[in-house]
Amino acid sequence: MAPMSGASDLVAGRIIRFNEEGFAADVYDDATGKPIECEGQPTVGYGCRVRQWSERLARAVLTFQLAETEVELLQYPWYVGCNDVRRSALLEIAFNQGDTGLIKGYPHMIAAIGQENWEQAAAQCTVRDDWLKVRYARIAEVLRTGVDA
């Protein structure tokens, strides 16, 4: 059998990774397969080694994930009608809570956005979890002002 080229090796590697490793949406311990209370190499997705990701790769993956999240939001006039900064605030919520979490979890905020009532939109941008309140206060301020200071 002839040796494979570098490109063929890469394709074969992907097939093995996708078919044999399987997909896991959450970070898990490579040594045990359990969620991230880690003794081994933490991995995510199709067994990608997270600690070995460069910042460039992590940014590329995050950029892809954000674009994928935004595809759903782009069908809503209230989202498209926002400036880029307000869209980034809404995208932050959708990325963390899912687009359904944004849409079903914040109907009053979305109604206020549709009416360009930025004070009301900001007032509706709340969370129950204490550790998220600072983040959502910033998102609310971005919605209120349309700028990210």
Describe this structure in words.
This protein has about 150 residues and is mostly helical. The chain folds into 2 domains: about 5-50, no CATH class; about 55-145, Lysozyme (Orthogonal Bundle). Helices cover about 60% and strands about 10% of the residues. It is built from 7 helices and 3 strands; from the N terminus they run H-E-E-E-H-H-H-H-H-H. The protein has a 3-stranded antiparallel β-sheet, with no helix packed on it. Strand 2 (about 40-45) and strand 3 (about 50) form a beta hairpin. The chain is globular and about 50 Å long.
Keywords:
single chain, 149 residues, mainly alpha, Lysozyme, 3-stranded antiparallel beta sheet, 7 helices, disordered N terminus
Short description:
60% of the residues lie in helices and 8% in strands. The protein is mainly α and 149 residues long.
The helix/strand order is HEEEHHHHHH
pLDDT below 50 for ≥5 consecutive residues: which ranges? 1-18
Whole-number total of structural domains: 2
Q: What percentage of amino acids are in beta strands?
A: 5-15%
Strand count, sense and barrel status of the largest sheet are: 3 strands, antiparallel
Percent helix, as a range, is 55-70%
Number of helices: 7
Mean pLDDT: 75
